[in-house]
């Protein structure tokens, strides 16, 4: 009997667990869901017929290795920093691994060993990264097969709130790891535009968001470059393209207001502060400013880019509200306090629906030398705050890949991304049967 281990039972695991329950039942497989939280395990596995739950301290190396060794394949939803350790356990015990996280250089270094041992370590197989790779490569490969040459590639993705559940001026509610929301954009974003390399440091990133118009969607969006777009030149075969940008989508106006929080220092994750010294958010925020007699006026002076819309967004968060007390009363970093604030203000309530939006824009010269463009758009809405679009689009590619590997339908070995046809075709086909289908327009 084939067996599968899912490490992590958080927000992104909900739809994945349902998928594994259904398909493991049909195939006679078994699966185990493991998490540090015993309560979470009970909640997520109580109604399962084909899966079991186990509470485990993932820092207990011996117990985790023993658990890994009892299964044929591991899906890891643990923090990315733990994936190389999990991968080594898989290599030592002869197991396959699937993750949704960005590949690291340490993970790449395991390719030769994984290949020698006929094991697959599949990374970036969630939403973004994941579905973005697969849907883009399907288009790019088709263009090349017909003799086309790609000169422009832009790919945008965002986890947003559905319009019917959009009840705050930010147009945003949290459907994934809130810490990652606070830390989004850290580092230097790299991309190529009109043949020139561009670098945007974190402090400047959100000030340079651009409008993104997705035809027929009715959505008012903007996007900012995400991480290092240039690392996909080789994987996507875009070394000769004049423009390559992979970016993140937000509701228009979000980035200008968020940029103020970044520049102020509220997203900092390195400076230790004793938060017990502050009773309210205005008192805390004032420590970041040279002039504190009137916070709203000080903001307008220091951040001249603020307009009435972004100003109202900051007010709505409660930065200037004396009644808005800090939840954190011990030593920590500013990013932790901001996370607590947005978790409260941007909460996805029980009947709220989140929304995933993905949009590719590809310019190419066809076999006749004519300039053409093709766009591909995807909109997926959640059902509620449990069965979210985020959980669906992150979880289903992982579940599909895992089941297809165990069935013997995917036979790639080594450290891989889902950019090979042998990987993306079966996964996209199964995603389509679950309603995750792109709309394409050629013009």
What brief labels describe this structure?
single chain, Rossmann fold, 443 residues, Domain 3, Saccharopine reductase, seven-stranded mixed beta sheet, Dihydrodipicolinate Reductase, domain 2, alpha/beta, 23% strand, 18 strands
Produce the secondary structure layout.
Blueprint: E1 3-7, H1 14-27, E2 30-35, H2 38-45, E3 51-55, H3 61-69, E4 73-76, H4 83-93, E5 96-99, H5 105-108, H6 111-116, E6 120-122, H7 131-145, E7 149-161, H8 178-183, E8 188-193, E9 196-201, H9 202-205, E10 210-212, E11 221-225, H10 233-236, E12 243-251, H11 254-264, E13 273-274, H12 281-286, H13 295-302, H14 308-317, E14 331-332, H15 334-345, E15 354-365, E16 371-381, H16 389-407, E17 414-416, H17 421-433, E18 439-442
Parallel strand pairs: 1-2, 1-4, 2-3, 4-5, 5-6, 6-17, 7-12
Antiparallel strand pairs: 7-15, 8-9, 10-11, 11-12, 13-14, 15-16, 16-18
Could you characterize the architecture of this molecule?
The chain has 443 residues and is an alpha/beta fold. The protein folds into three domains: 3-129 and 390-435, NAD(P)-binding Rossmann-like Domain (Rossmann fold), CATH 3.40.50.720; 131-253 and 349-381, Dihydrodipicolinate Reductase, domain 2, CATH 3.30.360.10; 258-345, Orthogonal Bundle (Domain 3, Saccharopine reductase), CATH 1.10.1870. It is 36% helix and 23% strand. The protein has helices spanning 14-27, 38-45, 61-69, 83-93, 105-108, 111-116, 131-145, 178-183, 202-205, 233-236, 254-264, 281-286, 295-302, 308-317, 334-345, 389-407, 421-433, and strands at residues 3-7, 30-35, 51-55, 73-76, 96-99, 120-122, 149-161, 188-193, 196-201, 210-212, 221-225, 243-251, 273-274, 331-332, 354-365, 371-381, 414-416, 439-442. 43% of the residues are buried.
């Amino acid at each position: 009997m084939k067996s599968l281990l899912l490490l992590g039972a958080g927000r992104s695991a909900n739809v994945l667990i349902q998928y594994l329950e259904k398909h493991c039942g049909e195939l006679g497989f078994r699966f185990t869901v493991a998490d540090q939280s015993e309560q979470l395990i009970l909640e997520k596995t109580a109604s399962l017929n084909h899966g079991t739950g186990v509470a485990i301290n993932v820092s207990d190396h011996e117990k985790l290795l023993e658990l890994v060794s009892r299964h044929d394949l591991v899906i890891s939803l643990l923090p990315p920093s733990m994936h190389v350790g999990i991968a080594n356990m898989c290599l030592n015990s002869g197991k396959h691994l699937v993750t949704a996280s960005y590949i690291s250089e340490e993970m790449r270094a395991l390719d030769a060993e994984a290949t020698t041992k006929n094991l697959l370590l599949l990374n970036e197989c969630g939403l973004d990264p994941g579905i973005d790779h697969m849907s883009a490569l399907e288009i790019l490969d088709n263009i090349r097969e017909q003799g086309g040459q790609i000169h422009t590639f832009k790919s945008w993705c965002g986890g947003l709130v559905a319009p019917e559940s959009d009840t705050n001026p930010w147009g945003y509610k949290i459907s994934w790891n809130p810490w990652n929301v606070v830390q989004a954009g850290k580092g230097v974003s790299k991309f190529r535009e009109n043949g020139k390399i561009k670098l945007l440091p974190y402090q400047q990133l959100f000030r340079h968001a651009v409008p993104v118009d997705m035809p027929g969607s009715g959505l008012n969006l903007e996007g900012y470059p995400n991480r290092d777009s240039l690392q996909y030149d080789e994987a996507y075969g875009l070394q000769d393209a004049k423009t390559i940008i992979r970016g993140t989508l937000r509701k228009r106006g979000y980035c200008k207001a968020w940029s103020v929080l970044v520049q102020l220092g509220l997203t900092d994750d390195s400076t230790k502060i004793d938060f017990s010294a502050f009773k309210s958010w205005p008192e805390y925020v004032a420590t970041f400013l040279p002039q504190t007699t009137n916070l709203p006026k000080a903001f307008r002076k220091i951040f001249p880019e603020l307009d009435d819309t972004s100003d109202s967004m900051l007010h709505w968060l409660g930065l200037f509200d004396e009644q808005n007390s800090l939840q954190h009363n011990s030593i920590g970093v500013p990013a932790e306090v901001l996370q607590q604030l947005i978790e409260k203000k941007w909460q996805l309530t029980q009947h709220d629906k989140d929304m995933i939006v993905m949009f590719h824009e590809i310019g190419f010269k066809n076999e006749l030398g004519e300039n053409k463009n093709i766009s591909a758009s995807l909109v997926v809405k959640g059902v509620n705050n449990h069965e979210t679009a985020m959980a669906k689009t992150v979880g289903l590619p992982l579940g599909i890949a895992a089941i297809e590997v165990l069935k013997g339908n995917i036979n790639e070995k080594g450290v891989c991304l889902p950019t090979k046809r042998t990987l993306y075709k079966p996964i996209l086909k199964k995603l389509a049967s679950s309603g995750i289908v792109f709309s394409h327009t050629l013009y």
